[in-house]
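Note to self: user wants both folds in one dump. Writing first protein now.
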Amino acid sequence: MRCLFRFGAGFTALLALAACGSPAPVAPASAPPRPAPTAAPVRVTAATARQVGADELGRVPVLMYHRLAAQPRSVYERTPADFTAELERLAAEDYVPVTTAELVGRRLDLPAGAHPVVLTFDDGDPSAFSLTPQGQPAPGTAVRILLDVAAAHPRFRPVASLYVNEHPFGGDTDGRALRWLAEHHFEIGNHTRRHTNLRTATESAAAAAIAEEDAVIRQAVPGYRPATLALPYGSHPHRDGLALQGPGYSYGGALLVGAGPAPSPCSTEFAPGSIPRIRSQSAGAEAEYGSAHWLDELGSPSGHRYTSDGDPATVSYPRSEGAVAPACASVGLAY
């Protein structure tokens, strides 16, 4: 089985800051982020993989956000300044955003030495994303901030996965916001129609909660197929596998609420139905479970962080890592 990792290393910035501090214009949907034309890629060897410290069986931070607020009242809120600082840190440490769908699909194409990070937003809060009357991401929202940071850091790809319920982003009754996200290469994920606790719901009610929101997303964005689910409260349905497969829906991955970094999708430890996430947090109670702690840990010499070899057709890893997952064995390169 081929294990393809396809998103462009070294893609160019889509946005430029407008004069006088006005929001940057957004590239049209017809111009997706992609690398500039280059010569045929040079295949990685054990020597080049060792040189960049490639470890494509390493751990991946999947960061969990809910709301931005000027005065946070819970660990699920961050100030716009804190969020901006975290994105700037990720860019400085050579992280490249990918979506959850790309992670579970093993579609990771990063520059040599770079690290994937998944930015996820639950609940469809207006502080995460909303549109101005002119159809641009509203100033101060997480998506606007992400686009601006990406404009300043060309390798920092402006994508994220937003998990929505019914009437996201303060309404979106006509689906305009969801369509904008899809057109600009953001992932729209399922968070159930009414934020249902799938553990306490009956099997039929749990399946209906997932299927109903899946249908809402498809209706708002014709032709779009949701690929992953964020489990409300991190709770699985009682029946194993129901979160990923049921009447009217089929998903490649399901996200938990928080725990730690996720295994590489080519690791034997990767469980697509239970992908751990890290709560975005730098201080306060339980900060040892937050993103600042885990980014420090991953960046340490013993952090076991996913590091790209720069070759999307090969999965390189130190021989000491052990076995690669069977789905990636044919393209594995131990050194």
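First done. Writing the second protein, which came from a different request thread.
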Amino acid sequence: MGGTAAAAGRLLLVFCGGFVVVAALYVGIDRNEQLMLVAASAFMFLLLVVSLRVPWHRFPWGTIAFPVSVLLALAVLAHVTAEVTFAFVSLIPLTFVYVGLFHPGRAALVVLPVAWWSYIAMVPIFDSMAAIRLTGYGIVWWATAQVLAVTMALQRDLRRRLADDARTDVLTSLGNRRDLEERLSQARPGDCLVIADLDHFKRLNDTRGHAAGDAVLEKFGGYLAQHIRRRDYAARYGGEEFVLILPRTEPVQAATMLRALRTEWAEQATGVTFSAGIAVVTQGTPPGSALAAADIALYRAKDAGRDQIRIAGTPIGGTHLSAAAGTRSDDT
């Protein structure tokens, strides 16, 4: 938010500063007052230049300085050109529009006292009628910021949910193929990749129906999510295949985790086992190559009788969990 808010804040300074300069050409003021208007505009442009050096992404709340600076400049200007600056009251609501677009609604409470001070300084005669107007304006300014802040929060939440949906497998709630590709590009040497594939899944669909197959996929995805660490990642690769990215993990550690998963999965009595291939990302084996190596290891596990785990380039003795797991067939 900091970068966008800072860019919009600069536009706010440019617009308000330019507005003051242009207005100075059309209002009936003397030369000294014109110089003060130009000085106020120059102050805003100076703040713009300074803002280019500030790392706003580190403290986005700091961008509240943009509307506050505009209001302070208007208040100071009002003290030296009291009969003219009331024409600039229309700039005050613009600062609350900025606050509502780029900050939580409560930020308006920070800006409101400065806005009141600016308005009081701009009004030639501050009487009871002016006080009533100021109260009404304050409510409108605050409400404007609240409505915009709530609207922007809803839009951000909607965008986040749409982005999550676009990267989430509907059936298993794990990452989907699109999300997996992005995560793979971020894998580093020392990370472990696992491809797990449900054995004889086509047979399950053919004999018990696709609804039963979907139920098994959903349950298996849930078990994967339960067994991985917070830093790990799981995605449905396609069909009955799943991919795990295990940062800073040794292949033996990955195999141990998979054996624990295999033991608990067997207790569910789904009639479906799984095989897995493991590979490590290295300097000479980038993520794409490591995934291909894990895929080869997976098919080595399949060829060995399924319900097995293999590390790329290394055989791992696996104990079959069911008699059916040792039976070969043409489907996976």
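Dump finished. Worth passing along: The first helix runs from residue 2 to 24.
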